[in-house]
Amino acid sequence: MKHHDPTAPLPPEYRIRQCRREDLFGVIHVDAMAFAGHDLFPGFFFVQALDICGDGFLIADFHNEIVGYAIAARRQDEVLQGWILSTGVLPDHQRRGIGSNLTAQVELFLARAGVSATVLTVDPENATALRFYQRLGYEQVSRFPDHFGEREDRILMKRRLN
User: Fold this and answer.
1) Could you tell me the residue range of the domain that residue 127 belongs to?
2) What is the CATH number of the domain that holds 42?
3) Which residues make beta-bridge pairs with 2?
4) 4 in a domain, yes or no?
5) 3: DSSP letter
6) 115 lies in some domain
7) What is the pLDDT of residues 57-100, one digit of tens each?
8) Residue 6 to residue 111: CA distance in whole angstroms
C-alpha cells in the first residue's frame, strides 16, 4: 500500500496552521470554490467544527489567504477511529501538495489522540477525490446508499495509521 510522507515539504509560500475564528469566512469561501456545483456545508457547520474539533481543524494559507482546510475528529467511544470530516483546496492551488499535507497533518493529530485508523466518506461520482485518497493509502470499505439523503450515496474509505 502506497503511503504519503507527512514531512514532504510544502512550497515555502504556503503554511499549515490551526484554524482560528477569523479564518472561517476564508474556509467557507474555499468550500464554495472547491465544491462548486455541489451541496455545500452551511456556514454554521464550520463554526461548530471549530468549536468541537479545535486542534483537528487546520487551514493552509498562502500569503495570508486561506487556500485550503481539513477537519478531523476522534470518535468519542470505544472505537479508536478518527474521521476526516472535510478537506478542500481552492482549485488554483490544487496539485501543489496542499491537500496531501493537510491530510497528513490531521492524521498526525488523530494518531496523537490514540487513533489507529482514519475513515472518511467520498461522493462516488467524485473520481478526483477517490483517486486522491487512494493515492494516500485509503481503501474503499463500503458504500452507503442515500447517506446524505436521496441519491446522496457515499463511499466509506479507511486507512490504518502507523
Assistant:
1) 14-160
2) 3.40.630.30
3) none
4) no
5) -
6) yes
7) 999 999 999 999 999 999 877 668 899 999 999 999 998 999 99
8) 12
List, in sequence order, every beta strand (DSSP E) within 9-153: 14-18, 57-62, 65-74, 81-89, 117-122, 139-144
User: Residue holding cell 462548486?
Assistant: 36
Are the beta carbons of 121 and 156 closer than 8 angstroms?
A: yes
Q: Could you tell me if 91 and 35 are in contact, meaning their C-beta atoms sit under 8 angstroms apart? A: no
Chain segment 12-58, per-residue pLDDT in tens:
899 999 999 999 999 999 999 998 867 678 889 999 999 999 899 99
Structural domain total, the chain: 1
Grid coordinates standing for 103?
A: 491530510
Question: What's the pTM?
Answer: 0.89
- Spatial distance between the Cα atoms of 110 and 116, rounded to a whole number of angstroms: 8
Residue 90: C-alpha distances to residues 2, 38, 60, 138, 144 (Å): 25, 15, 10, 22, 27
In a domain, 55, yes or no: yes
Residue 129 inside a domain? The answer is yes
